[in-house]
## 1
Amino acid sequence: MTINDNKIIFGHSPDADDAFMFYAMEKKIVEIPGYSVAHHMEDIESLNVLAETGKLPVTAISAARYPDVANHYRIMSCGSSIGRNYGPMVVSVDPMTEADLEGKTVAVPGRFTTSWLLFQIFGPKNCTPLFVDFDDVGPAVTEGRADVGILLHEGQILYEKLGFHGIMSLGEKWYEATGLPIPLGVDLVSRHIGDELAQVIADASFASINYARANEDDALEYALGFGRGIDPADGKKFVRMYVNEDTVDMGQEGRSALEKLFSMAVERGVLAELPELDIIQAN
């Protein structure tokens, strides 16, 4: 991984919460001295796949993907998508109970997503995954290609408006089992750029998130341009859900939550061994 033309590329999703966090950088209110900032925007599963190459200096990924890419990246203490008692939602067209999930085909927004890992921890073992693009989960369920689907992002708060019935909130299941916040996504910085620059990037990310939260109206106006048509009230709710105090600094609870996620995955036989957490503290 190299940085060309003194340009640092940040990989992130084209979603309102990520746009909100990068508002201050995009407007050059927060800068990285000596470097310009560019963006590589793809859905989270595409970023999960790309992270295996180590090409991006900075990238968001699903927390579940970290064990596979830890050789290339360290976790930043800021920028994480962490929920408290909410998270991905398992939905269907017709009303269903959790017991009805046995043997069902599940539309999953990516093999490496934390949502799939959580389903493997809390759902029945005999379900069949149908891995589809993020925006194809809903259609896969409504068209009958899958019995149920796992909705992320805005879908987890808008599923009823979209005509779905909620079966299981993976965020609630997690909280009931652990009492911890749910670590869905993390922001990474490359091991290959040197500790000094990695720290500068982490600190700039920290400053950008804090600025957006302190200037919410302006940052939201910018961010909702990335909201896929979501109305402003729902957009504000969504951004506040996933750009919160835990995003500013995951703290010890966030670290404990990551350790718990991976240990439960090992216990369930989904993950072979526990990864070593390497977290760079932003200031």
Note: The first strand starts at residue 7 and ends at 12.
## 2
Amino acid sequence: MVKYCGYLVGEGWLLQRGIELGINPPETREDEIGTILAASSNARLVTGVYTYTSFRLVKTPKGKVFWCIAFASNDACDSKGLPTSRPSEAKYKRLQEPLQKAGPPRWFQAC
């Protein structure tokens, strides 16, 4: 079972960030996905974590699906080349404030 170590990000937060970036409110699910991807890329770029993170869908232990900004994967064949261990504090700390997260990233099962 593939797992990712990262921070969960809700669709509502991503859609709101997209609107704040000047993207028109989405009218279709396809528009929503485009906005979500653009907002995620922007958040990762402005915090300086883009080059060593990936954006994945994951499930919580209760089965709820979220987007995840991932720093690591337990899959050594991950196409993004993510490391297999949790990142250093210096790497993940940059995302804590914009995402309003405390503590290190956690591991979640891939969808």
Note: The CA atoms of residues 49 and 68 lie 13 Å apart.
